[in-house]
Predict the structure.
Amino acid sequence: MTPERWKQVNELFHAALTRAPAERPSLLDQACIGDPELRYEVESLIKSYVETGSFIDVHAFDAGAQLLAKRSDLAPGHVGPNRNRSIWKMPSQGGDAMQVTRQGGS
């Protein structure tokens, strides 16, 4: 795909996202007259965005911190077979740090 074509696809994709899902087909009907490949590319991007948008919208550090916080084996005070103590400090999107501690048995 040429840079010019990508720009066209990307601009139409973002324009479609500003519309309600029910309004997108009419926008694509008008913008893609005689260019079924353009419509296919934009619809493909919209489908991917809808399926994975909520995951991609989460800041990676925040998502990692949330996953670590949900792990019961990493909960404060947990005693498990691992005798090592590990501490991770993960910056969040707001700049604060989240600390997760794993305590091993004695």
Remarks:
- The chain has two domains: 3-56, 60-102.
